[in-house]
Design goal:
7-stranded mixed sheet; about 40% helix; Aspartate Aminotransferase, domain 2; alpha/beta; Aspartate Aminotransferase, domain 1; single chain; 4-stranded antiparallel sheet
Length: about 425
């Protein structure tokens, strides 16, 4: 297979050519939302130009719009490994989809039932369930972390699982510190006590292949704007589970969980984003050897191959970043740093610099054309647990596959200078 050509891929992203003070900007803000390739921009523009219409009309533009939407549902099913496009529901974003489906799940629960959430999660997969539980008289338990490496405390999870547990809500990866949870193991344990599982894959989806059937999760949700698409959320739900839930919708709505007129232009852009990832698989991946290749569709094989190629490239890149950070006096990395545990994290790295607040650090980097995030990133419970809420959170460097070793080295140089001058 050809070597991963990051320069060729970067050429597809117009935003990556942005200049600041004569230097190319380094976009290290991927966990907050990635840049998009030109084909995604063209797909959104093309939708408005050629097929902008509501669904179900007896005329060409409506038929084109509906056909595109059907294809996008099928593509998302292949992206996530779902059995059918009917198991895919598009919505405004992950948070909104979770609030919506949470109402349906909540309608099946009552006093005596229990829900498990985690300290490691984004608030969209915590606050939603707490609010629903308060309305329904349901008890919520929170699984803690192991503070030494900021991973989920699986013994604590085990102690909280009981026959009263009806839902386990867990992240695939932490959007703050990059930890990848053993989701398949967690799903299996939840199912042993009869609980449903709800997996937030927003922070994982840009960084590796997802197979919802292999995970056996009941629900999984992600957002296309975190993996090179437009602002759109996507929910997977097992068909039998979706069918068993009450739906809150207007009476004539065509779908039980996609309510109102969809954002068709964003759906078109999401379809284009899956095509971009397929191209990566064809160019740099092992399509024939992709997991599940024998029974998978061609698109699924290409997507898995593309995401697997991304994993290999990103793992080397984040290793370079962590190694450099560990050599800077006064810098603390929050999360896994052992190079032998690269498979347990995504390339999202949060850190603190002794004597430098995270906002001040982000501003200094921003003036140098290095764009990173600071704060708690809605992982509010985790940042509180780490004792960082009072100092403004942490600094987050988020790599994706269009970032380069040169950008990593440039960032390390800037951070080293910042730490030395504190």
């Amino acid at each position: 297979m050809p070597a991963f050509d990051v320069d060729a891929l970067r050429a597809e992203f117009p935003a990556l050519a942005r200049q600041q003070d004569g230097r190319t900007v380094a976009f290290l803000d991927g966990p907050g939302g990635t840049q998009v390739p030109q084909r995604v921009i063209d797909a959104v523009n093309g939708y408005f130009t050629n097929s902008n219409a509501n669904s179900g009309g007896a005329f060409t533009t409506s038929e084109l719009s509906d056909s595109m939407s059907e294809e996008a549902h099928a593509a998302m099913a292949d992206f996530l490994g779902a059995a059918s496009p009917e198991e895919i529901k598009f919505g405004y974003n992950m948070s909104t989809l979770t609030l919506h489906i949470g109402r349906s799940i909540g309608a099946t629960l009552g006093p005596g039932d229990e829900i498990i959430v985690t300290t490691l999660d984004h608030e969209a997969n915590v606050s939603t369930w707490r609010a629903m539980a308060q309305d329904r008289g349901v008890t919520v338990h929170t699984v803690d972390i192991r503070e030494d490496d900021v991973t989920l405390d699986l013994e604590d999870l085990e102690s909280k699982l009981t026959p009263r547990t009806k839902l386990v809500a867990v992240g695939y990866a932490s959007n703050a510190v990059g930890t990848i949870n053993p989701v398949k193991e967690i799903v299996a344990r939840a199912h042993e006590v009869g609980a449903l599982t709800y997996v937030d894959a927003v922070a994982f989806a840009p960084h590796g292949p997802i197979d919802v059937r292999a995970l056996d999760t009941d629900f999984l949700v992600c957002s296309a704007y975190k993996w090179f698409g437009p602002h759109l959320g996507a929910l997977y739900g097992k068909a039998a589970v979706l069918d068993s839930l009450p739906a809150f919708k207007v009476r004539p709505a065509h779908d039980r969980f996609e309510t109102g007129t969809p954002a068709f232009e964003s759906i078109a852009g999401t379809l284009a984003a899956t095509d971009y990832l397929r191209d990566i698989g064809r160019s740099y991946g092992d399509v024939a050897g992709a997991p599940g290749a024998a029974e998978a569709s061609e698109r699924r094989r290409e997507l898995v191959a593309g995401m697997s190629a991304i994993v290999d490239y990103e793992r080397e890149l984040v290793g370079r970043l962590i190694e450099g950070l560990r050599a800077i006096p006064g810098v603390t990395i929050h999360g896994i740093t052992d190079p032998g545990r690269g498979a347990e994290r995504v390339p999202t790295v949060s850190l603190s610099i002794e004597g430098v607040g995270p906002r001040a650090a982000a501003e200094t980097l921003g003036r140098q054309g290095i764009y990173v995030w600071d704060g708690d990133f809605y992982a509010t419970g985790l940042i509180e647990r780490l004792g960082k809420a009072e100092v403004g959170g942490v600094l987050r460097v988020g790599l994706v596959h269009y970032n380069t070793a040169g950008e990593v080295d440039r960032t390390l140089e800037a951070l080293e200078g910042m730490a030395a001058a504190r």
